[in-house]
Structure prediction request, 200 residues.
Amino acid sequence: MQSIIDSPRAALAVGAAIAAAVLVVWLVAAGADGLALTAYLVRLVHVLAAMVWIGLIVFVNFVQLVALGSADEAQRAFLHKAIVPSVAWWFRHASTVAVVTGVLLLLLSGYLLPALIYGTGVFMPAARVLLLWGGVIVALAMWMFVHMYIWPNMQVVLGMRAGDDLAKAAARGRVILFARLNLLLALPVVLAMVAAAHLF
Prediction:
């Protein structure tokens, strides 16, 4: 019990396990079929991961970068040690979980390789398909920004990769640029995904 109190990760894991167990028992008792249950659980994880990812995009842009920009060297060193690595860890992993579960959802929902899951094609309204695939493409670009630009440059800023002051300044500029691009694309992706699921 003490580890749950001391660690938010442990509390989150235990809470998620309890919620999932209760949900699975309830859905099985209610007679949900296996494919629908699997799709629901994958969607749940996808939404939670996307919430963390988008939440951290907002946090990084409106809180973390502002704090780092107004901090002196000692404060910046403290933030780089105490806050930034944890934010970067959650940011990277939430983006990956969101993308992987998104691909699984495309399979389970019949948007991708429907004959593999359902044995035949699945009808989807054209507007839904356009919205969904537009959101998917932009979300993949956001994921690429995280893993190909933000994280490698963040490693230089944090001193995890070699770089002099000039390299660190350039890396900091690239982190800010791609953090802003993630922020710029986040709302259109969310709107496209929610519209595809609920308007058609």
Notes: The mean pLDDT is 89. Residues 1-32 form one domain. The helical segments are 2-6, 8-30, 34-70, 73-82, 84-109, 114-118, 126-157, 165-198. The longest helix spans residues 34-70.
